[in-house]
Design goal:
Belongs to the TRAFAC class myosin-kinesin ATPase superfamily. Kinesin family. Ungrouped subfamily. InterPro entries: ARM-like, ARM-type_fold, Armadillo, KIF11-like, Kinesin_motor_CS, Kinesin_motor_dom, Kinesin_motor_dom_sf, P-loop_NTPase. GO terms for molecular function: ATP binding; microtubule binding; plus-end-directed microtubule motor activity. The protein is an alpha+beta fold. Among the domains are: 329 residues, Kinesin motor domain (Kinesin); 68 residues. 64% of the residues lie in helices and 10% in strands. Strands 2, 6, 7, 8, 9, 12, 13, 14, 15 and 17 form a 10-stranded mixed β-sheet that branches. Helix 28 runs parallel beside helix 31. The termini are far apart. The structure holds adenosine-5'-diphosphate and magnesium ion (MG). The site of magnesium ion has 5 residues, from helix 9.
Length: 907
């Protein structure tokens, strides 16, 4: 300590040193532990990019007022590190005290000049042999690393005698013990921890400078890399050096090992050692400044993406250069160790050039001989440039190397005087912008091409589709056309075929006709011959016929006379039979009356016998006496007439018997009345006496068929008289006759009923009433019985009705259609117009003729088939009068004639 005091009193060097250092002393002490401050502020440095400068830069040196362009003053900081005694030194120097003494608390180093004299030096940091690698990093390198991350260049350099720990300090990998990790490894750890791998990049070059030759340790074949300096900015670059991008610590360590291996191989090849070459690690840190970009874009809120993409990114490019210098032994010492002169010169050329430059810079000399060596050219920015530079000088404790130690210390002292102007390496990244734009352009071109291709494909697809559609439409059209063509062809062929067939047929017919014509002519000739023969034969026959006719006429005349004779006889016979029947009826009736009279006489007698006041009718006995001989007469005398009988008995009496309770009496009585009614002379009387009414009543009240038959016969006889007809009608005769007909089973009863109605049908005045009360229907209803007698009466009735109608039509009192037709008589008429039974046929023929006379019936007659009957009647009827009537009727009816014409019947 006493010597320490002596030191202060020591010569000018100390003073001069002191003089030079005093000015910065306080500042240095204030900045004595910037790494701590930096570490503490690390998080702050992330808050804002602009704050990084103030934080990392030794603001205390420059007052933090300098602008970016001017740079920030930043003196080269120098730390001294003392290597511990090695084992060998511990032995060899055991008897010697160390030549240096460190006072780290004062940042002082005392160098023992001799046993009594020491020199004291102050450094920015004094690192004892116990200083940890971590602390060394934080003190020496960390502020530089932070500056680099903020966009400044930085240099960490180790200077010292071989074996003093330069490589130990900088390059230990600390693989076995992480605490051993040197500055390089720790620096990269911090860098990688701070950068963003997306937006930032970290790349590394590793070089060795040996005998003024710059070798690429990452590519051994590249052993002469040229240095390029930008005269404007003074930036130094090595375009030929391999630049490896670092993404993680591990790959970096591997890269370092690779470089180290290459360095070892190179040194072996050159027969040298690492201590004779300078090793340079260059770490390029490129960071984009996002904060500013964001601030900028927020000011232009409406800026589009393209505008944004057109704006270059602001980038900061910091470069960290770590230099492990060759040993700083003296040239004579090197030489003594067997190095070639050239090599020694070369080593010292770079080192002495560096020393000279530092001297010049320390003395603010106008000229700094930077260009004297490659090393100084490479470190141009590190000393007197824009980089933040931190120098660690390494010394050993051994007094045997005092000289080298002294020289090292002096180098450090001088370096401490070098002022750099730190400059932010910030620029717009036009290159990457251009690259980005290129990429964008390429993308756009690709997109355009893709769209163009898609468009062309779409066009092609549409074209193909359209063509397909067109061809399909064409195909369909062609198919349709072909179908149509085939159809027409087929039709055409068929028509041709038909025409051919027709033609053939015509040809055939023509041939036939020709044949026919020929044969016809022949036939005609033959027929003519036959005709003449026939004619002559006919003439002969006609003569024969005439002969026969005259004979026939003669025969007919004789036959006619015979006929009339026989007719007379038959008539007489019939009359006789009729009379006989009548008389028989009368006899039975009179017998009945007789019986009744005798019964009454007995009654009277009994009353008289009882002495009753009753009076015997005087005429009864006389009546009986009158009747009795008459009865006897009738049995005996056939010619006794009914007239006599009825004169004798009295009509009233007979009629009263019609209502007798005894059925037999009633039957006899009705028979008598019927017989009386058969005589026209009696009819008037019978009717006047109420006989007709009684008969009608009987018809309605009796259920006896015989009574019905006989009564109906009587009514039929009475109905021949016009007055009686009216009476019958007014008494409801049609209804009664209809009921009788409906219930009758005996054809003779029906015949009587039909005859009665037929008579009524002949009354012109009663036509409508008769029909209205169902007379025609009743008549037609009776035909189902089928008996010719009944049918003949029905036919007569119809003929009568038709005759009256035709008469009324002729008089103009009847206009409408025949009531017979109305009541459906026409079918029966047509059906029976040619009946085998002549009485039926005659009546119907007449009826047809009468109906036909009225034109209004013609249409119904045509549809009903009556026209043909009329035609037949007009031609075939045996009775000439009817035939004529039919013919006349036919020819006078326009409707019939039209119909015949329509049917092409030549009438
Ligand atoms: P240089 O690179 O300066 O020639 P080295 O770094 O190779 O020196 O160191 C030489 C020797 O000293 C090595 O064996 C190294 O391990 C050792 N050494 C150097 N510095 C230290 C230290 N601070 N602590 C312990 N050993 C050290
Ligand atoms: Mg070394």
């Amino acid at each position: 300590m006493a010597s320490g005091g002596a030191n202060y009193r020591n010569g000018t060097q100390r003073n001069s040193l002191k003089g030079t250092t005093t000015a910065t002393d306080r500042q240095l002490s204030m900045n004595s532990n910037p790494s701590k401050a930096a570490l503490k502020n690390k998080s702050l440095s992330l808050v804002g990019a602009s704050s990084g400068l103030r934080k990392s830069s030794p603001g205390s040196l420059g007052g933090g007022t300098a602008k970016d362009d001017a740079g920030v003053p930043g003196r080269v900081r120098v730390a001294v590190r003392l290597r511990p005694r090695s084992a060998e030194e511990s032995v060899a120097d055991a008897d010697f005290a160390d030549c240096v003494e460190l006072q780290p608390e004062f940042k002082r180093l005392k160098l023992r000049k001799n046993n009594w004299d020491t020199d004291t030096y102050e450094f920015d940091e004094v690192l004892t042999e116990f200083a940890s690698q971590k602390r060394v990093y934080e003190v020496v390198a960390k502020p530089v690393v932070e500056s680099v991350l903020d966009g400044y260049n930085g240099t960490v350099m180790a200077y010292g005698q071989t074996g003093t720990g330069k490589t130990y300090t900088l390059g230990r990998l600390g693989e076995e013990d992480t605490a051993d990790r040197g500055i390089i490894v720790r620096a990269m750890e911090d860098i990688l921890a701070d950068v963003s791998l997306e937006s930032d990049s970290v790349s590394v070059s590793y070089l060795q400078l040996y005998m003024e030759s710059l070798q690429d340790l990452l590519d051994p074949t590249n052993d002469n890399i040229s240095i390029v300096e930008d005269p404007k900015s003074g930036d130094v670059s090595l375009p030929g050096a391999t630049l490896v991008e670092i993404r993680d610590q591990q790959s970096f360590l591997e890269l370092l090992q690779l470089g180290e291996a290459h360095r070892y191989a190179a040194n072996t090849r050159l027969n040298t050692e690492s201590s004779r070459s300078h090793a340079l690690l260059m770490v390029h840190v490129k960071r984009s400044v996002k904060g500013r970009e964001l601030a900028h874009s927020s000011q232009n809120g409406n800026s589009t993406n393209i505008a944004k993409s057109l704006r270059p990114t602001l980038v900061r490019k910091g470069k960290l250069v770590v230099v492990d210098l060759a040993g700083s032994e003296r040239i004579d010492k090197s030489g003594s160790e067997g190095h070639t002169l050239e090599e020694a010169k070369s080593i010292n050329l770079s080192l002495s050039a560096l020393g000279k430059c530092i001297n010049a810079l320390a003395e603010n000399s106008a000229h700094v001989p930077v260009r004297d060596s490659k090393l100084t050219r490479l470190l141009r920015d590190s000393f007197g440039g824009t980089a933040r530079t931190s120098l660690v000088i390494t010394i050993g404790p051994s007094p045997r190397h005092r000289g080298e130690t002294t020289s090292t210390i002096m180098f450090g002292q001088r370096a401490m005087k070098v002022e750099n102007m730190l400059k932010l390496k910030e620029e717009f990244d036009y290159k990457s912008l251009a690259r980005k734009l290129d990429i964008q352009l390429d993308k756009l071109i690709m997109e355009h091409e893709r769209k163009q291709k898609a468009f062309e494909e779409e066009i092609e697809r549409i074209t193909t589709d359209t063509q397909n559609q067109i061809s399909e439409a064409e195909r369909n059209y062609a198919d349709a056309m072909e179908k149509e063509r085939l159809k027409y062809q087929k039709d055409y062929m068929e028509s041709i075929k038909k025409l051919e067939e027709k033609w053939m047929m015509n040809q055939h017919k023509l041939g036939e006709r020709k044949d026919q014509t020929a044969s016809t002519a022949q036939e005609v000739a033959e027929l003519k011959k036959l005709l003449s023969k026939e004619t002559s034969l006919r003439k002969a026959a006609e003569e024969e016929v005439n002969n026969l006719k005259s004979q026939l006429a003669q025969l007919k005349m004789s036959e006619a006379s015979a006929n009339s004779e026989s007719l007379k006889l038959r008539k007489m016979l019939e009359d006789e039979a009729y009379r006989k029947e009548k008389l028989e009826g009368e006899i039975s009736m009179l017998q009945t009356q007789l019986l009744q009279l005798s019964f009454e006489a007995d009654e009277t007698r009994r009353r008289l016998d009882r002495g009753g006041p009753g009076k015997v009718p005087g005429d009864l006995d006389s009546l009986i006496s009158q009747v009795r001989p008459q009865v006897n007469d009738s049995v005996n005398e056939e010619k006794a007439s009914i007239a006599n009988l009825f004169e004798q008995v009295g009509l009233q009496k007979i009629l009263s018997l019609l209502e007798a309770e005894d059925a037999d009496v009633r039957i006899h009585a009705v028979k008598v009345v019927a017989n009386l009614a058969a005589e026209e002379s009696n009819q008037q009387k019978i009717v006047e006496a109420g006989g007709l009414t009684s008969l009608l009543l009987l018809l309605g009240s009796s259920e006896d068929e015989m009574i019905h038959r006989v009564a109906a016969g009587a009514i039929a006889n009475l109905a021949m008289n016009e007055t009686n007809q009216e009476l019958i009608m007014s008494e409801g005769g049609i209804r009664l006759l209809s009921i009788t007909a409906a219930n009758a089973e005996d054809p003779q009863t029906l015949r009587m009923v039909a005859g009665a109605i037929a008579n009524l049908c002949g009354n012109d005045k009663l036509q409508n009433k008769l029909r209205g009360e169902g007379g025609i229907k009743a008549l037609l209803g009776m035909v189902k019985c089928g008996h010719p007698d009944v049918l003949a009466q029905v036919a007569r009735g119809i003929a009568n009705f038709a005759k009256c109608e035709s008469r009324a039509s002729a008089q103009g009192s009847k206009t409408g259609r025949s009531l017979l037709i109305e009541d459906g008589a026409l079918p029966w008429i047509v059906q029976n117009a040619n009946n085998d039974a002549s009485p039926i046929r005659r009546h119907i023929e007449l009826a047809v003729c009468h109906l036909a006379q009225h034109e209004v019936n013609a249409r119904d007659m045509i549809t009903g088939g009556a026209l043909w009957e009329l035609v037949r009647i007009s031609q075939d009827c045996s009775r000439e009068d009817i035939r004529t009537l039919a013919h006349r009727t036919l020819t006078s009816s326009p409707t019939f004639l039209a119909e015949l014409r329509r049917l092409r019947i030549d009438y």
